[in-house]
TrEMBL record:
PANTHER family on file: MITOCHONDRIAL IMPORT INNER MEMBRANE TRANSLOCASE SUBUNIT TIM22
GO CC terms: TIM22 mitochondrial import inner membrane insertion complex
Membrane-related topology note: Multi-pass membrane protein
Entries under InterPro entries matching the protein: TIM22 (IPR039175)
Family: Belongs to the Tim17/Tim22/Tim23 family.
UniProt keywords, alphabetically: Membrane, Mitochondrion, Mitochondrion inner membrane, Transmembrane, Transmembrane helix
Main location: mitochondrion
Cellular compartment(s): Mitochondrion inner membrane
Biological process per Gene Ontology, one example term: protein insertion into mitochondrial inner membrane
Record-given protein name: Mitochondrial import inner membrane translocase subunit TIM22
């Protein structure tokens, strides 16, 4: 009986501690240093953002081209020796990677520049910036095909950009 009363008293003591709400610990506010402020100012520059996006897009295109170029099969594969197949595959990988590198670099540069400029002009960060940037990018990438192709590219890339934006859920 004594053991059960000891357990009850411990439970009673712990329940009274649980009833008191714990005050959350709020970390103190820290002012950014001058280096952090300067770094933010650099990244807020549209030219810096655009060039960085172009370089990253080019890198992505390079790796995608290498991967997709390796998947190309020669038409006369049965008649080629192992060395000929290797040389053909290496050339295809080089061509594909350079082509993809240029396309993705231009795409990243245009999209980032358009989004940054629209964002600064509107002084808002929302999905509308993504739609406009996608339209500008798609239209400019497909402009060589004529006005119909530019309109289709604009609509398609804008829709794709919004889908990616919603998938990443950046603007909640």
């Amino acid at each position: 009986m004594a053991a059960s009363s000891g357990i009850e008293s411990n439970n009673g003591a712990s329940s009274s501690r649980e009833a008191e709400p714990e005050t959350p610990q709020i970390p103190p506010f820290r002012m950014p240093t001058m280096e952090e402020i300067r770094a933010q100012e650099v990244w807020n520059n549209c030219a810096v953002r655009s060039v960085a996006s172009g370089v990253m897009g080019g890198g992505l295109g390079l790796f995608m081209g290498l991967f997709l170029g390796a998947l190309d099969n020669p038409l006369m594969q049965e008649e080629m020796t192992g060395r000929q197949q290797f040389i053909y595959t290496a050339k295809q990988m080089g061509r594909r990677s350079w082509s993809s590198c240029k396309a993705f670099a231009v795409m990243g540069l245009i999209f980032s520049a358009a989004e940054c400029i629209v964002e600064k002009a509107r002084a808002k960060h929302d999905v509308t910036n993504t739609v406009v940037a996608g339209c500008v990018t798609g239209g400019s990438m497909s402009a060589r095909g004529g006005p119909k192709a530019a309109c289709v590219g604009c609509a398609g890339f804008a829709a794709f950009s919004v889908l990616i934006e919603k998938f990443l859920d950046r603007h909640t």
